[in-house]
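hey can u check if this looks right to u? its 335 residues, i copy pasted from the old doc so theres a chance i mangled smth
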Amino acid sequence: MIKPPRILVVDDEAIARITIEALLSAENYEMHFAENGEDGIAKAVEVQPDIILLDVMMPGLNGFETCRKIRSMSVLAEVPILLVTALDDRESRMTGLKAGADDFITKPYDIFELQVRIKNMTRLNRYRMLTEQREEMQILHLELVTAYDKTIEGWSRALDLRDKETEGHTLRVTEMTIRLAQAAGLDGETLLQIRRGSLLHDVGKLGIPDSILLKPEPLTEAEWKIMMQHPVYAYEWLVAIEYLRPALDIPYCHHERWDGTGYPRGLKGDEIPLAARLFALADVWDALTSDRPYRQAMDSEDVREHILNGSGHHFDPRAVEIFFSIPMPVQNRVP
């Protein structure tokens, strides 16, 4: 429920305070009162009003001095101040403006003028506060997204460190997949989700025992069945994180094949999300053009031939066309 605007009236004359309260009684305002400048400042700090009606002619701190003090306080610097004065000369108005007042109303004031000015000033102040709150929320959201993305990057580095054979692989295939996605006409939020999905493509391997993941010899049939579960593990872990659900296509589907012989679900053709189809090409390219302990990187022409032979079988033919339409990165040979 939206709270009513808070109005603080600072006036040393009781009759003036009672009159303003009576004039505004028909409106939905939360009224607060103070009898002098010092009390007015203290009350303003306490209630954080939406507008301050400040009498000029008061003993002790007059309205101009009170206004200056309020403007010097960070917690009150943006609160609109309407000076209520019997003075109607240019010099007084200039003094008030220099002190930080936003507007003036002259005694004796017209009830309709008073109501309109207060309504407009409270509305503008509420709008300003809402705008500031939205900006703060946007900043907080950006900081949160940045923290999430840094966490994702940390996970990807941890995965690479676990499997020394593929060190640097994640960042390379992420960059390559983004280039492919851009060439395919994808942009904006879609590219952001593709980047996240690429960084997390092998997160499911955290559920694969080291004895299988790091085994130097060929895997047995039983071990392969376990290895082929890593996309499922990735899905089960990430689907519970609403922020990462749009990025699931690559971790869950990057081992699917165009002809339906992939895993874990045997998806075929356009059943496979486009992001996963593009990633599959980047993944194979990086694997074949990188040195491994058990083999050297393949020559570029041999890799091209391998990918072309896989078009329509392993790979989406259209994705292959896109792949060969962009410059190829250098091979990842160990010096």
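The radius of gyration is 34 Å.
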